[in-house]
């Protein structure tokens, strides 16, 4: 179930848009009540973005003024979310069109039962991640979707080539023998997917399982660019599309037909048409679909103009 509020046509916050990515696994007896509280709060303080509430906890990325973000964090802590993984960054423009609060069965959908609160892997701090990447006995696995990996990834990381996190258990079943007997280190955007993926590995008998605390975002925030082993930019699920070192806004744009992040070369390709197609999806859509996308883009341009 999704509840959302359109945003009033207000000016940007005087202190800029603060973007907050957060999650915490915590058992909730009445997630529907929390959803309504958050919907009411977000409407009052002018948040935008999406929060997901489920019996297992909360997850989401939102943006607002400094005061609005502080108000959300204070409310969540007051109702028991006192161990949130939370990361902040800035956006020059409003990164989301509206505010949504979704009630779901999982805060990140893996599709198989796991125990992230009691069986997740060992955390590795951002400052120690480079040493792990260099270790010969470690297999490093990127748990994100293929379009996210395309924007950037860690040097030497294994790409499962999945289109959704639901596909990860099947990938593990097919590649378990290749990982057997090795130390397995995993990473994702903000850390939440790794809470479940490492728990899944441990439930399948893997013992030495690790994951990057705070995910790629924490690494890009804390590790100096000159020491970084990250290549490219990090895909984020908001209007910025990607961020780089220091969590600065990246240079990618999103194809609004297929969702892939596009660099300058792809935007110069003959198959790229803003809002309509890109080299990744041009052959996958019909002429009728492209016509509909053009109409949509013209409506968007008219509103923006």
Please characterize this protein's 3D structure.
The protein is α/β, with parallel strands linked by helices and 305 residues long. 33% of the residues lie in helices and 24% in strands. The protein is built from ten helices and 16 strands. It has helices at 31-45, 66-78, 116-119, 126-134, 146-151, 168-179, 192-203, 215-222, 264-267, 287-304; strands at residues 2-6, 17-25, 48-54, 57-64, 85-91, 98-103, 122-124, 138-142, 152-154, 183-187, 209-212, 230-232, 234-235, 242-243, 253-254, 261-262. Strands 1-6-3-4-2-5 form a six-stranded mixed sheet. Strands 7-11-10-8 form a four-stranded parallel sheet. A hairpin with a 6-residue loop joins strand 15 (253-254) and strand 16. Helix 1 runs antiparallel to helix 2. The longest helix is centred in the last third of the chain and has 18 residues, at 287-304. The chain is globular and about 55 Å long. The two termini are 33 Å apart. The model is unreliable at 4-10 (pLDDT under 50). Residues 134-228 form the Rhodanese domain. Keywords: Oxidoreductase, tRNA processing. This is tRNA uridine(34) hydroxylase. It is an enzyme of class 1 (oxidoreductase). InterPro entries: Rhodanese-like_dom (IPR001763), Rhodanese-like_dom_sf (IPR036873), TrhO (IPR020936), TRHO_N (IPR040503).
């Amino acid at each position: 179930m999704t509840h959302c509020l359109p945003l009033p046509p207000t000016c940007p916050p005087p202190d800029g848009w603060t973007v907050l990515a957060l999650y915490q696994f915590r058992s909730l007896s009445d997630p529907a009540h929390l959803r309504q509280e958050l919907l009411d709060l977000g409407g009052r303080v002018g948040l935008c973005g999406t929060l997901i509430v489920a019996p297992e906890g909360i997850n989401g990325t939102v943006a607002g003024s400094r005061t609005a973000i502080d108000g959300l964090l204070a409310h969540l802590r007051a109702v028991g979310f006192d161990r949130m993984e939370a990361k902040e960054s800035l956006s020059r423009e409003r990164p989301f069109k509206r505010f949504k609060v979704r009630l779901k069965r999982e805060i990140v959908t893996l599709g198989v039962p796991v125990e992230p609160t009691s069986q997740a892997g060992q955390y590795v701090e951002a400052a120690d991640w480079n040493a792990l990447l260099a270790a010969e006995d470690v297999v490093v696995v990127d748990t994100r979707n293929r379009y996210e990996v395309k924007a950037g990834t860690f040097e030497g990381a294994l790409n499962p080539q999945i289109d959704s996190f639901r596909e990860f258990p099947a990938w593990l079943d097919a590649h378990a023998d290749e990982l057997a007997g090795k130390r397995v280190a995993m990473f994702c955007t903000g850390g939440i997917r790794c809470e479940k993926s490492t728990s899944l590995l441990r439930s399948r008998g893997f013992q030495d399982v690790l994951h990057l605390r705070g995910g790629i975002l924490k690494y890009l925030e804390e590790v100096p660019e000159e020491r970084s082993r990250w290549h490219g930019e990090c895909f984020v699920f908001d209007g910025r599309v990607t961020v780089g070192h220091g969590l600065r806004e990246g240079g990618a744009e999103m194809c609004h037909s297929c969702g892939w992040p596009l660099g300058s070369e792809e935007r110069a390709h003959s198959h790229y048409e803003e809002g309509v197609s890109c080299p990744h999806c041009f052959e996958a859509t019909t002429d009728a679909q492209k016509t509909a996308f053009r109409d949509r883009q013209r409506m968007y341009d008219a509103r923006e103009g």
